[in-house]
Write a structure and sequence with these properties.
Elements: E1 2-5, E2 8-12, E3 20-24, E4 27-29, H1 37-43, E5 51-53, H2 59-62, H3 65-72, E6 76-79, H4 83-88, H5 100-105, E7 115-117, E8 122-123, E9 126-130, E10 139-143, E11 148-150, E12 156-158, E13 165-168, H6 178-190, E14 195-197, E15 204-205, H7 207-215
Parallel strand pairs: 4-5, 5-6, 6-7, 11-14
Antiparallel strand pairs: 1-2, 2-3, 3-4, 8-9, 9-10, 10-11, 12-13, 14-15
Helix pairs in contact: 1-3, 6-7
């Protein structure tokens, strides 16, 4: 694990930060795919974890959640707008846009939702923000005291084709509403985060000018 801010640790689940989970205080945020659950639990061995939350119910963020919650004996917290999908073990994708690869990997072990997260809730000193678009219920977590952002997939900070770092919009295929996600990108940029952490790609320090510059290029 790599510390990126006070009490915030990156758990890189693939090489070159392709998929990330985050330990925020005593709460794990995201858990990668089903096959990554064991790696997450191993990385957390010896640490105090009291709950597991996700940013959204796509299988590369919630796939490992059932294993993590069972192994660590912690409750599962999910954005309210994605809670039904998490309970059913299905990620949310745009109508009529299911790719054959996604159809084979669409399911994940269902998870019992102990708490539904909503705008303004508090998680380990972070405020929950509703930032829909990539999924209907996508949330981010923001700590105002030092302006640390856990942004999930509102932004990608990597190309999944070349693995080169760089801000970009999330993959179009699983994004339910790209225009709404751009609004969420603008909202997060307006927070002027000092540190921005992503579901895909390395974290960014001095993040505010980089996010501002990127959203200025959006349609």
């Amino acid at each position: 694990m790599k510390q990126v801010a006070d009490g915030v640790f990156q758990i890189a689940l693939t090489p070159r930060d392709g998929v990330n989970a985050w330990l925020v205080g005593d709460v794990l945020v995201d858990a990668g795919t089903k096959g990554m659950g064991k790696k997450v639990a191993k990385a957390l061995a010896g640490r105090t974890v009291t709950a597991h939350a996700i940013t959204h119910a796509h299988s590369d963020h919630v796939g490992g959640s059932a294993h993590v919650c069972s192994t660590l004996g912690v409750p599962f917290w999910c954005p309210a707008g994605d809670a039904a999908a998490a309970r059913e073990g299905r990620w949310v994708v745009p109508q009529g846009r299911m790719h054959p690869v996604m159809s084979r990997t669409n399911g994940f072990p269902p998870v019992d939702v102990a708490r539904e997260l909503r705008e303004g809730d508090e998680v380990a000193g972070f405020r929950v923000l509703d930032v829909p678009g990539h999924s209907p219920g996508h949330v981010a977590f923001f700590r105002e005291s030092d302006r640390v952002l856990i942004g999930g997939d509102v932004f990608f900070n990597i190309s999944l084709l070349t693995f080169r770092p760089g801000l970009r919009e999330p993959l179009a295929l699983p994004t339910v509403d790209p225009a709404r996600n751009r609004d969420s990108m603008r909202r997060l940029a307006d927070l002027e985060p000092a540190v921005a952490c992503f579901g895909h790609g390395p974290p960014v320090t001095d993040a505010a000018p980089q996010l501002r510059a990127f959203v200025a290029t959006l349609p």
